[in-house]
Design brief:
The protein is an alpha/beta fold and 438 residues long. It has 3 domains: 121 residues, Methylthiotransferase, N-terminal domain (Rossmann fold), CATH 3.40.50; 229 residues, pyruvate-formate lyase- activating enzyme (Alpha-Beta Horseshoe), CATH 3.80.30.20; 60 residues, Beta Barrel (OB fold (Dihydrolipoamide Acetyltransferase, E2P)), CATH 2.40.50.140. It contains 12 helices and 18 strands. The longest helix has 24 residues. Bound molecules: iron/sulfur cluster (SF4).
Length: 438
């Protein structure tokens, strides 16, 4: 007698927060997919047997978004639209007891290193041989590659070391194997990510191995672009600069959060780098890689930040002219060292300072973009959107930086392909171009 195959368990995964969290979500989906579950990523939750929410617990806004997402799914569960609700990631790692008390209707809470437990809770078998296997959620031509977990720094505003633990480098051969698997699946661009990218190897090999890793990654056939995110200014491995400037596969792109430039604030943040040291490093980077794209992240409104100290930061942004800047307003996080300080900069002032930096950066970005008009750039095509192909130059990381809008009638443009694009127009955060006939 023909037995009807059992209906596949339908699971929807929602991934909040940063690209490092996304990689964890992809690893979980890789396991679930090979356990024959019907997986959707950020799809329709209604009708799902289970929903897994990978949360962010970094700062207030992100925490609120995670809590709202959980509550929305609990309501859907109570309406009988979905089966079970599971929560994983940084918020539950950090607040599991509070969450169990305040939102008891979640079927189970998991931390940041519980993929095996989640697979087994959902009724699957954890496949050890698949470690590093991921179900990629980004467009198939680019992917994030996490090279380590946790952080040994002690920035006083940051809750991450308390959530993700001490710095743990992924063994080099595992990183290379994961990169090769991604490339074998069509990935051409890899964003290297970590809490502290440029600290790679110090725990595992007792020396900085980031340059060595970068060189080995660049030898992978088929990999075209390697991009660096979350470099750290203190102890920056200068030996990577010639690799970046000379190796065509390593993008002339460095994302390095510096957070502030005033010495008193930097020391209160325990960043381990000074105004003078930061300026020298940034200068040396530009000297070694003249057309480098520098992205940074800044925090305004740290406890006690005076208007004068903020003006110093604003003037620095105007003078140094980063290519890309992200700004956060200080979030008073319990469990961090800065939580002992008084959060005495009013929210309205924090917001005002954040907007002043972004306004200044907008003007800088426009001028930098206008200087690119008339140039031809190698552009990777991410998607088609209405009349345009949308792509990025080497200076643009996905989802956070500028895009190039290409109006080309040609229908044979390949998504994930590289094309020479002649820039004819620029605005604040985007460029406009035509495919250029070589
Ligand atoms: S480097 Fe500082 S800000 Fe970044 S994760 Fe580590 S402690 Fe947090």
């Amino acid at each position: 007698m023909q037995t009807k195959p059992a209906k596949k368990k339908k699971i929807n995964l929602i991934s909040l927060g940063c690209s490092k969290n996304l990689v964890d979500s992809e690893a979980l989906m890789g396991q679930l997919q090979l356990n024959n579950f019907d997986i959707s990523f950020e799809g329709q939750s209604e009708g799902s047997d289970a929903v897994v929410i990978n949360t962010c617990g970094f700062i207030n806004d992100a925490k609120q978004e995670s809590i709202d997402t959980i509550l929305n799914h609990i309501e859907a569960k109570q309406r009988g639209e979905i089966g079970q609700v599971y929560v994983m990631g940084c918020l539950s790692e950090r607040y599991i007891r509070e969450l169990q008390t305040e939102i008891p209707d979640v079927d189970q809470y998991f931390g940041v290193n519980d993929i095996q437990k989640i697979v087994e809770e959902l009724g699957g078998d954890y496949r050890y041989e698949l470690i590093g296997e991921r179900k990629i959620t980004t467009p198939s031509h680019y992917a994030y590659l996490k090279i380590s977990e946790g952080c040994d720094r002690r920035c006083t505003f940051c809750a991450i070391p308390g959530i993700r633990g001490k710095h743990k480098s992924k063994p080099k051969d595992e990183v290379l194997a994961e990169a090769r698997r991604l490339v074998a699946r069509g990935v051409k661009e890899i964003m290297l990510i970590a809490q502290d990218l440029t600290y790679y190897g110090i725990d595992l090999y007792k020396k900085n191995m980031f340059a060595d890793l970068l060189q080995s990654l660049s030898e992978i056939q088929g990999l075209k672009w390697i991009r660096l995110h979350y470099a750290y200014p203190a102890g920056f491995p200068m030996e990577i600069l010639p690799i970046i400037s000379e190796n065509p596969k390593v993008c002339n792109y460095i994302d390095m959060p510096i957070q502030h430039i005033n010495n008193r604030i930097l020391s209160l943040m325990q960043r381990g780098h000074s105004r003078e040291g930061t300026l020298k490093l940034l200068h040396d980077i530009r000297l070694a890689i003249p057309n480098v794209t520098l992205r940074t992240t800044l925090i305004v409104g740290f406890p006690g930040e005076t208007d004068e100290e903020f003006r110093e930061l604003l003037q620095f942004v105007k003078d140094f002219k980063f290519d890309r800047v992200g700004v956060f307003s200080y979030s008073h996080e319990e469990g961090t060292t800065a939580f002992r300080l008084q959060d005495n900069v009013p929210e309205s002032i924090k917001q005002q300072r954040l907007e002043e930096i972004m306004e200044a950066q907008q003007e800088i970005s426009l001028k930098l973009n206008q200087s690119r008009v008339g140039e031809v750039y190698n552009v990777i095509i991410d998607r088609r959107e209405n009349d345009y192909y949308i792509g990025r130059t080497e200076a643009d990381s996905p989802e956070v930086d500028n895009e190039v809008l290409i109006d080309s009638p040609a229908s044979d443009i390949q998504i994930g392909g590289f094309y020479p694009v002649h820039i004819y127009k620029a605005d604040y955060f985007d460029l406009y171009g035509h495919i250029s006939q070589l």
